[in-house]
Write a structure and sequence with these properties.
The protein has four helices and three strands, in the order E-H-E-H-H-E-H. It is an alpha+beta fold. About 5% of the residues are buried. The mean pLDDT is about 90.
Length: about 110
């Protein structure tokens, strides 16, 4: 199993989201200075592919600036809330289906 993952993109801008993902997934998340995600990652991989940079240069070009560790005590809260969600989903599923199947207004 993974010891840690790297948080990138929009979700990496929200501390609560990062903590929740770490707690639920059970892994630490490392945040780099630049969290633009796919574009920067693609550029770095291209640079490695054509020999402009070495794989080890990634830490120099975009260093890890913070690590968010999982909070095991939060996991029980998420598990409880997930059970509530599953119950609500089961109770409302027929209603959601009928709303989905209904023609749009004005048609």
């Amino acid at each position: 199993p993974a010891e840690a993952v790297y948080a990138v993109g929009g979700g990496a801008q929200y501390p609560l989201w990062i903590q929740a993902v770490s707690d639920i997934a059970g892994v630490s998340q490392r945040l780099r200075r630049h969290t633009t995600g796919a574009a920067l990652g693609s550029a770095l991989l291209a640079g490695i592919g054509v020999g402009l940079i070495a794989r080890g240069d990634i830490d120099r070009l975009n260093p890890v600036v913070r690590t968010v560790k999982r909070n095991v005590s939060n996991r029980a809260l998420y598990d409880r809330d997930h059970r509530i969600y599953l119950d609500l989903y089961a109770q409302t599923k027929p209603h959601m289906r009928s709303l989905w199947d209904r023609p749009p207004a004005g048609h």
